Structure formats: C-alpha cells, structure tokens
Amino acid sequence: xxxxxxxxxxIAAVLTSCSSDDDNGASGAxxxxxxxxxxxxxxxxxxxxxxxxxxxxxxxxxxxALKDNAYSEAQLDAMFAHVEGANDFLDSDLNxxxxxxxxxxxxxxxxxxxNTTDANAIKSQFDAWISDQATNVFSNWDNxxxxxxxxxxxxxxxxxxxxxxxxxxxxxxxxxxxLIGSLMTDQILNNYLSPAVLDEASNxxxxxxxxxxxxxxxxxxxHKWDEAFGYLYGAEADATMPTxxxxxxLSEYMDRVEADEDFAxxxxxxxxxxxxxxxxxxxxxxxxxDAQAEIIxxxxxxxxxxxxxxxLQRGKEVLAEGxxxxxxxxxxxxxxxxxxxxxxxxxxxxxxxxxxxxVDAFMAQISAGNGFWDITPETLDAISTAIADRFxxxxxxxxx
Length: 400
Known about the structure:
The strands form three sheets. The protein has a two-stranded antiparallel ribbon with strand order 1-2. The longest helix is centred in the C-terminal third of the chain and has 36 residues, at 286-321. α1 (50-65) runs parallel beside α9 (220-233) and α9 packs antiparallel against α11 (266-282). The protein starts with 13 loop residues before the first strand and ends with a helix. It has helices at 50-65, 73-80, 92-96, 109-112, 116-137, 171-192, 195-198, 203-208, 220-233, 250-259, 266-282, 286-321, 324-340, 356-367, 377-391, 395-398, and strands at residues 14-15, 31-32, 40-41, 44-45, 151-154, 161-164. By secondary structure, the chain is mainly α. Pfam families: DUF4856. Residues 1-19 form the signal peptide.
C-alpha cells in the first residue's frame, strides 16, 4: 500500500484571522502552518503524547491476545483494565504503566462526563465481547462453526481460518474496530480537542502567559492538543513526518481511506489541521485553533464511515461467492466500524453523526436470529446507504 510522508507534501500556509472583542486570546495573531509537527520552548521540545503511545501498544497486544485461545477470560479482562504493576502484557514497560484501555473507553468530557449510563453500557459491551470470545469461541476452537454454533471456518482456497461465535461474529474484530471509535476517536474528537478540556480552569490564562506545567516544557493546553495528536500518530517512528499505517487502529485506516482516490487528500488535511491548530495555541489564537479542531472532527469521523461501508459492501460481495469465512470476517470489521459511529462528531455540534440508539438499532438488526448466517444483501445495502447519506458520500465511492 502506498505510503504518504504527509509533511513532505505540505507547503507552509499562512492563516490570518480578523480580530474580535468576542474572541478568546490574541485572535488577531497571524498563524503560520509549520512544515512538521515540531514545537519547542527555550530549546526544548514541548510535544508530548507518551500516554497515547502506551495505550496504542496495549491495544495491539490485547487484540492479538483475543486471537489466542491460550488466554483465559480473566487474563483478557486484566489486559483490558490493566492495573499498574500487574504482569498483564509481554512488554514489561506496559506492565509498569498506570495506563489502561478500559478507563478511556467512552470516557470523553463532551459525551460521557455527564452520561455515565451510556459510558457504563459501552464498557459492558466490550466486557461481553471479551467474555463471549473466551467462553464460547475459545472453547470451540477446533470445531467447525455453523449457524447457532461457535467454532472455526476456513476461507476459500485454503485461506485464513476465522474463529467466530454462534452468530458468525469475529469478536476480535468487533473489539479492535470498536476501540478505534470508543477510545481513539472519542478521545481525540470529544475530549482533547474540546474547548471544555482545552480551556478548562486557568488553561487560557496560563497559555497566554506561557505558564508551563510543573517540571514540564509545555502548557496544559499545548499538552491536551498533543494528546489528541498522539492517538493518531503515537505509534509512528517519527511523528514529525508520519507515514501512517503505523498501528492497527486509526493510523491504519486513515491510510486505507487515503489510498482510495475518491478520498485522497484526507490524510494531509488532518495532519495540516493538527499542525496549524497547535501553532495557533502557541500564537494564542484560539479562533484558528477551534477551526482546525472542526476540520479534524469532520475528517476523522469520515474515515470510520468510509471503512464501515467498504467492509459491509465487501462482505456482501463475498457472501454471494459463498465464502462464508471471508464474508464474516469482512462483515465483522464493518460492524466494528458501524459500532464506532456513535463516537464521531458533527462539526459545529455536540452530537455524533449517529446516536447510540441508532447504532444500537443497527447492531440489534444484525444480531437477530442467527446473525451473519441470516443477513441479507438488502440489509447490508440499506445500512450502507444510511451511513453514506449521513456523511454525504456515495456507497459506490467506498468500493475500490
């Protein structure tokens, strides 16, 4: 797959906004887009997103463990809800960390700080997927799957063996793609890029006066923006010049959408917005900062929608060919992305493109009866069209 060194294609731009008495900070300050995501103060880098890099690495080990029937449910639960010092991972640095995946699932300020009912329900859904995988799929690892019975199916032509539950769901894919939405996307769009987080307490005055966090080189506002950046670029070998496809989560699928000629340029748009928004924080221009956050919200949301529709349509095609194992794999990826649509963000609003109730209705629809064993092309087309229409692209555009 074609790689894109994003910063190599970026020409430094200048954005000047008009001054207004209603704007926060020095809104009239000119902001230059840097060529790379590099910022410093007194000769020291002010960019830091190590916590995001850690959670991405935890996610990689966790979703790999979901495909290994040697793990128990207790071990998987412990990886998901890691406690500092527990020997949950192969990587000792991850074991020493105080970070966890579960604590950041459905945990954004804008969507879940006052909505613990939905937050708990979403966490419980992940717990249920983990339990189903460990209890039912692992225990039927060597059995041939059929409608109503968990087990394995091999893709046509001696291809990959897929391990599915009684409804044909490849649960490790539900979890992996669900994390892209409930953790990475939710934290970027609805937490760290939210004015409620960026401007919390004395963040504006401290940023205006270059007051940094104790023992650090960055202001709190700078750090919050970097943490959003880290959930997309935190696994890059060199995040100042990202190439994408650096992890199995948002980075991989931004790369996939970028490779589709109908959506080419989306990766550069997002990277440019991250750079300009961060530069705007340095310049104390919060009008420009917030405009860039809106661009990021719209385009990262679109990545989830495009890949969701792509996999639903690919699954439909393979179902017609009779390769159930491959079809169920594609559909599991697709509905993992569908589940993640509740964490997207419509620019200029405090709402996702699809509400939790709408997403729950989609998931209930595919879970009825024998699940994927019973699913029809008409159902897949209807859901695909509903998503594409909401995001203002066509189903045909996602098929490449």
